[in-house]
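Q: Hi! New to this. If I give you a protein sequence and the SMILES for zinc ion, can you show me the bound structure?
A: Yes, paste them in.
Q: Okay, here:
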Amino acid sequence: MSFSNDVRNELAREMGAKECCQKAELSALFMSSGNLSLKDGKYILSLTLDNAATARKAFKLLKNVYGLQSTVNVATRRFFRKNRYYTVSSEIDAKELTTLTHSINLNRQGGISSRINWALIGKSCCKRAYLRGLFLSRGFINRPEGSYHLEVICNDSKMAGDIQKLMGLYDLPAGMVERKNNLVIYLKEGEKIVDFLRLVGANKALLDFENVRILKSVRNNVNRQVNCETANLAKTVDASLRQVELIKQYVETSGWEGFPGNLRELAILRVEYPDYSLKELGAMLDPPLTKSGTAYRMRKLESMLEQAAGEQ
Ligand SMILES: [Zn+2]
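A: Thanks. Here is the predicted structure of the protein with zinc ion bound:
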């Protein structure tokens, strides 16, 4: 199952204790996925959702908050990848529609507006419930194992602008991009996605997301360290091969007796132990030398050998 569905299933179980928040969440569902039509003098209010748990939640909220009985239908879209969708619909009269204006923001034409009714979500608890409703109906999130991405698909530019503004109130700087005929509001930063999940109350998804994020950062650090160690090792080996080559050339013409003073011992050790680091070679000298002492002596040896090789 997709991570989006995991998050939606978790959010669908989160009913919210306060009526103000339940109204706000319903409002988000209607704004993004609702439809109002008139048939034989009765209004048909419906929500089209592609997640079963969200449809059940909408059914419960309509009943708890407005006492409305609705029906849920499942249908299959022929040409879409997500082929199942759920329609929650209620038949209401004009009086009930008036009551519902707490959750439905009607436009001038008498349809459902795609703008946020800011008056309805004055309190922070309601703003968060509203974001939860938006994610339930139009949100998608990538698995944290992949690239970080959370988005809300919008019907039009006004809706997109409103959602961007709402997220901005929580320091979630959302980007906007046009895709096919929709506008998409998105977050790309792992930390901001975590903030979003926390805001809407997806606590389990938040933990899963954070665990993967920690694993990923540990793995990145380990890779960086291994790369660094490999690079150092390669440098040591290259230097050693060059030193051994110079020493052998020198021995051919001048013999081991030709090395001045304390350089002979180091030259012998280098040829015998080409894979040892300077620190290890230094420890074998008599008397032993520190790493920097050995490096100094090795530089002396190298410049002597290079000079000799140049004179030939
Ligand atoms: Zn509230």
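A: The first strand starts at residue 34 and ends at 39. Let me know if you'd like me to explain how to read the tokens.
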